[in-house]
Design a protein that fits this description.
This protein has 4 helices and 3 strands; from the N terminus they run αβααββα. It is mainly alpha-helical and 104 residues long.
């Protein structure tokens, strides 16, 4: 009886890239979660972080700042928004979801 067992070297060559890719993906996922948790703890947010937190676009956040509806501060070249100011703005200006007329 002849046994055909693969040698460990070709098997390792197949598995190594798969494991490497899975580890890199897990590290990126953990890094994203860490960045999100750090942003959620900060007292000040950048325009991008404010957009991600509120679900609005960055351009909308900038427009609200320009119209002076949302308070912001310029620190060097950056524009920062107090988390409390963003939360107050969102609570004071609830967004209405209007049903599409084609479904009515």
């Amino acid at each position: 009886m002849i046994r055909l067992t693969p040698s460990p070297k070709p098997l390792a060559a197949i598995i190594k890239p798969i494991v490497k890719e899975a580890v890199q993906e897990a590290l990126k996922s953990n890094e994203r979660r860490a960045n999100q948790s750090i942003a959620s703890e900060r007292a000040f947010l950048t325009v991008r972080q404010a957009a991600e937190t509120s679900g609005l676009g960055s351009s909308t956040i900038r427009l609200l700042i320009r119209k002076r509806q949302l308070r912001a501060q310029k620190v060097g070249r950056r524009i920062v928004i107090k988390r409390n100011d963003l939360e107050k703005f969102l609570e004071a200006n609830p967004m209405e979801i209007k049903p599409d007329k084609s479904y009515a």
